[in-house]
């Protein structure tokens, strides 16, 4: 089951409120328990990342990671991935290891048996 995408600002704010923030060199993940039956995932990249081409590339890379590990996301959790400058230019293997590190840390903080 592929996670549903967060698209509205209010949903982003709700997902980021009272949640866990896990940082890596490549990106930041905000995690929070929600009441939904599907996992929710949002992607954002500010202008600090670069022009539109780099921001879109960063979000594409994050989406690809989520698609690769979609089975690891359990229902009832919201994740917001915030791209950093490194997201668009880092090696994909580094992004993959950062991604797994973030989800493992989020699981530890949230005490969630099914996050990862």
Distance between the first and last residues' Cα: 14 Å
Strand content is: 15-25%
What CATH architecture label applies?
Answer: 2-Layer Sandwich
What structural class do helix, strand and pairing data support? Answer: alpha/beta
Mean pLDDT: 86
Number of helices: 4
CATH class: Alpha Beta
Overview in brief:
This protein has one domain (4-108): Ribosomal Protein S5, domain 2 (2-Layer Sandwich), CATH 3.30.230. Helices cover 42% and strands 22% of the residues.
Topology record:
Elements: E1 4-5, H1 9-16, E2 20-23, E3 27-33, E4 40-44, H2 52-68, E5 77-83, H3 85-89, H4 92-110
Tell me what the structure shows.
- The chain is α/β, with parallel strands linked by helices.
- It has a single domain, classed as Ribosomal Protein S5, domain 2 (2-Layer Sandwich), CATH 3.30.230.10.
- The protein contains 4 helices and 5 strands; from the N terminus they run βαβββαβαα.
- The protein has a 5-stranded mixed beta sheet, with helices on both faces.
- Strand 4 (40-44), helix 2 and strand 5 (77-83) form a beta-alpha-beta unit.
- The protein is globular.
- It starts with a strand and ends in a 6-residue tail after the last helix.
- 34% of the residues are buried.
List keywords for this structure.
single chain, 5 strands, Ribosomal Protein S5, domain 2, alpha/beta, 116 residues, 5-stranded mixed β-sheet, globular, 42% helix, 4 helices
